[in-house]
Amino acid sequence: MRVVRNYLYNVGYQVLAIIVPLITSAYVARVLRPEGVGANAFTNSIIQYFILFASMGIGYYGNRQIAYVRADRNKMAKTFWEIQIVKTIMTLTSFIAFELFMLFYTRQPEYMLAQSINLIAVAFDISWFYEGIEDFKVTVLKNSFVKIVSMLAIFLLIKNPEDLTLYIIVLAVSTLLGNLTLWPNIKRDLPKVKANILDPWKHFLPMFELFIPQIATQVYVQLNKTMLGGMVSETASGYYQYSDNLVKLVLALVTATGTVMLPHVANAVAKGNMQKVNQMLYKSFDFVSAVSYPMMFGLAAISLTLVPKYYGPGYGPVGPAMMIESIVILMIAWSNAIGVQYLLPLGKNKEFTISVTVGAVVNLILNIPLIHLWGLNGAMWSTVISEVSVTMYQLWVVRNLLNYKELFHGSWKYLLSSVIMFAPVFWMNTHLRNTWLMMGIEVIVGTLIYVALVFVLRAPLIDQAKSLVGHKFSKK
C-alpha cells in the first residue's frame, strides 16, 4: 500500500506540475502569441544544457543511494551531504560556464538572463532525497502550493506580448521557491554530520555514469527544439514545446511509477531478494501497459481538434504533431519500467546508458534530414523513432533476465481494447461538432469502451486490482 500511496502522491504532483502550465498556457498562448511562446521554448532549450551539467545525474543516483542506506540515519545523512556538496560545486561551475557562454552569445540576452534563474534553482533541489526515503508527501504538498501561487501570478501579471521576460521570471522563481521549501525539513529528518568525515568525490564517477544517459536523454528532449529554432523558426520550436507539454501531461501518470518504484526496488536489491524484484517489474510493466495504451490511442484520437480548441488561432500545426508524438507514450512507459525500475536498481548503469545513447544517436542522425524535409512533423518522427530504439535495446538487454511471456502477458488485450476504442472516438472527434462538451463526451465514451473491453477480456490488471482491494480489507 505504501507504493500505491507514493504513486498517487507522485502522480498528483507530476500532473499538477504540468497542469499548471497547461491551464496557464491556453491564456499565455493568446497573450504572448506563437512568436513569444517560441522565444521562451527556444531560450529554455539552451539553458537546459547548463542545467543538465549542474544536475550531473544526481536525480537517479541520489534517489538510489539514499534508498540503499536509509535504514541507517547516520549513513543516510553522510550520503546526503556528500552528494549535495558535489551538486553545489557542479551548479557553480555550470553557472560560470553560462556566464562565459553569454559573452559570445548575444541573441536575446534579456530572455537568457531570466532563464538563468532556473540554473540557480538546481543547487537547492533535494527532491531526490525525499524520493529515496519514499516520503513523497512533503515534496508534493510544498511544491503544489508554490505551483498554484505561480499560476495566480501569471494571470495577474502577464497581460501583453511585452511581458515575456516577466513570464520567464515567474516560472523560474516558482521552481526556485519550490526547491527552497524542502530545506526546513532536512534539520528534522537528518542528524548532524561532522564535515571532516565527508568524502563527496567518491560519488563523482558513479554520478558521471548516470550523467551520460541524462545527456543522451536531453538530446532528444531539448535538441529538437533548438534545431527547430535554428533550422525552421522559433515559432516551430514553440509548436514542438506545446505538443510536448500535452503529451508529457499524459506521460506523468505513467512515468510516476518509475520514481516511486526505483527506491522500492533498490531496497529489495540491497536485501538480495531478486525474485521479488522480478515480480515487482512484471506487475509494474503490466500496469504501465494498461494505462499507456489507451492514453496513446485516446490522445491521438482527439488531438486534431483539441489543440486549436485549447490553444486558439495560430496553433494548428500542433495537432498533427501531437498525433505523431502520442506514440512515445507507450515507448517511454516501457523504457521507464525496464530502465528506471529495473536496470538502475540492479546497478546496470552501463546498459541503461547505452540504451539512451542509442536513442540520442538515432535522434541526432534523423533530425537533420527529417526536419529539413518535414519541419515540425519531421522532428516528431525523429523523436518517435528514437524512443522506439531505446525501448527495443532495453528489451534485448533483459532477454536473459526476464520472461517475455510473463512480461507481455496482458499486453495484447490492452492493445486490442485501445484500437477498438480509438475508432468511434476518432470518428466522433472529426465528424461531430467541436465543443468542450462534445470532447468531454468523447473522453467518457472512450474510457467506458476501454474499461468494458478490459473486463470482457479479463486482463491481468483486473486481478491486480482485486488483489489490492482484498489486501486492503483483509488488513482491516
Task: Summarize this structure as a short list of keywords or feature phrases.
transmembrane helix; Oligosaccharide repeat-containing polymerase; transmembrane; mainly alpha; 476 residues
Walkthrough of the structure:
The chain has 476 residues and is mostly helical. The chain contains 19 helices and no strands. The two termini are 13 Å apart. α9 packs antiparallel against α15, α12 packs parallel to α15 and α17 runs antiparallel to α18. The C terminus is likely disordered. The chain has 2 domains: 408 residues, no CATH class; 64 residues, no CATH class. It is a multi-pass membrane protein. This is Oligosaccharide repeat-containing polymerase. Keywords: Membrane, Transmembrane, Transmembrane helix.
Structure classification: mainly alpha
Low-pLDDT ranges? 469-474
The H-and-E topology, N to C, reads as HHHHHHHHHHHHHHHHHHH
Counting DSSP E segments of at least 2 residues, the number of strands comes to 0
Mean pLDDT: 86
Protein name: Oligosaccharide repeat-containing polymerase
Keywords: Membrane, Transmembrane, Transmembrane helix
Subcellular location: Membrane
Membrane topology: Multi-pass membrane protein
